[in-house]
Amino acid sequence: xxxxxxxxxxxxxxxxxAVLASYTALNMASRVSSASGxxxxxxxxxxxxxxxxxxxxMHFIGMLAFSLPIELGYDVPLTLxxxxxxxxxxxxxxxxxxxxxxxxxxxxxGGLLMGLGVASMHYIGMEALLxxxxxFYVPWLVGLSIVIxxxxxxxxxxxxxxxxxxxxxxxxxxxxxSLVMGCAIIGMHYTGMAASKFPIDSxxxxxxxxIDTKWLAVLVIxxxxxVFAIALIVSMLDVRTSQxxxxxDDANNELIKLALQDNLTRIPNRVLLGDRLEQAIHRxxxxxxxxxxxxxxxxxxxxxxDMHGHHVGDQLLKEVAHRLLxxxxxGDTAARLGGDEFVLLLEPCSPETSxxxxxxxxxxxxxxxxxxxxxxxxxxxxxxxxxPQDGKTEHELMVNADxxxxxxxxxxxxxxxxxxxxxxxNVHLQMQMQQNLRQAVSRNELVLHYQPKFVAPDGPMTxxxxxxxxxxxxxxxxxxxRFLPLAESSGLIVPIGNWxxxxxxxxMKVWYDQGHQEWSVAVNLSAVQLEHHSLVDVVREALRKHSxxxxxxxxxxxxTTAMCNAETSLTVLNKLSDLGVSISIDDFGTGYSSLLYxxxxxxNELKIDRxxxxxxxQDNDDEAIIQAIIALxxxxxxxxxxxGVETAEQQALLTQLGCNTLQGxxxxxxxxxxxxxxxxxxxxxxxxxxxxx
Length: 693
What we know:
This protein is an alpha/beta fold. It is about 60% helix and about 15% strand. It contains 24 helices and 24 strands. An eight-stranded mixed β-barrel has the order 16-17-19-20-21-22-23-24, surrounded by five helices. Helix 20 links the parallel strand 21 (about 580-590) and strand 22. It is rod-shaped. The termini are far apart.
């Protein structure tokens, strides 16, 4: 037999090519399995060519590394046939691993066919030498090489199927698997080469007419590496493109969610609610049915937000949304419009059912909450509009349900109300007034009237109370009870209150410069103003701006306002008192003040509510109450002011009981500043004439 040898460099190249071919095969398997439709077919064709060429080139380079003491060459048709077999085997393998499942029966039969195909490729490639006499094969080594080919093919199919998903872990798994598969392919090839024996008188029939081996090894190596590189680069680009596409899909889905869901509560927003309402209207039209729109607004949410911060408020809104979802029926829609407003679309739903459902929601929402270890209580007002009698369009239903909700708030809150056609006019009027009120300050439509206060029983005058009025071009001359609730609900009470403080200080400075240095001006504070962080700075700046001594300013608060958030109120009032401003407790006797806090408040004046003065008569209950209030005030070293004095009998009795100061229509009505001095001068002349007489 002829003695054979191997080119070590080409053997090393064949091993490298085998590993790269294995990695390419595993990578192609992942691309084929992740693709679909026409893309999957293209990947199958391209992957089969790249994988088949890789296996074939490893085999061919291994054969080029083989040398005999005679000149060798390779027959082109047989060499190309071996390449076609390698590509066909690769296509079969990729087809198997791209299936959803790979049962053991299919795996073993596939491994058998692929192993036989690879072995056929090898031995047909050997036949391309066209040796004469024919090559002698050692049977057991041939059998071993076929077994190795079948085992390697089965293992390759199993690994390719297991590692076809794209992930970082799968990438490292493919690297390790490609080393194992490469060694198996090399083992099969060189076992088959070891089975080949060449007689002494052998010669190669393809030595002169076939492919010259001098340049073929380099060409095959270069082409193989190029094919691998192109396949892997295209695969990586496809993976990257797929990842970008998935990222874009995820981003698009997230944008859709953001567009249709409320960011905080993750329930439908106004846009999605509008779409659901349109669909409900279409269904109700077709089926001649009806459905309900429930408009919910939380009672007292703003106070919780201001007191505990937006974080607690947001957590509370999330919990409210959760309770809405827990109580709604399947198929109903719960949405958040913004702020503390929610809407439920109940479809289908009769008025009777919607009433029961509204009450169930009210009961659920008023259950106690605990957010950030803070116990909270809140209620809700619900307005109900029924399609089609309360509106036939999305806009009409929403507006009418909103109007019904506002009516529920006026009736005492924590309840529900059905829409009635008279509600809209009132709601539109309120909205128009609120819009006009926003511009009232800049348009100089707000004015202050002043009601004098006198030393009991009838003078001299000791001060005035500033009373806000709105001279509206659209609604006429309005008293505070007409527009201050709107100011409080819309948040305008703070800028309006700041304007009142500044204007009262300015006017008081005018009177002071006119010689009325014993007067003081009283300004009423709302609960919202008292809790606002800027109040102390606003008062300080108003006094500084008009060079007014703080003793000429009295800030009146109701006892209910002072006790709403007692500790916070106490802190703010102490800061105001430190400025030198007087503090008066207004409407005393009508709230729920604690005597403990009353003793701690830096107040120096008690103002008896007019409710006790109206029915005041000697020896009745009101006299006893007033007498007790006066005794309490004097014990706490406070001045006692009685407002609402309208009869001479009230004037005399209050003076007898010990009131320091009287205020009411009997003595003087509120008037603008320019008319006030004229009235006071007239009253003074009349009093002097009476004394002379």
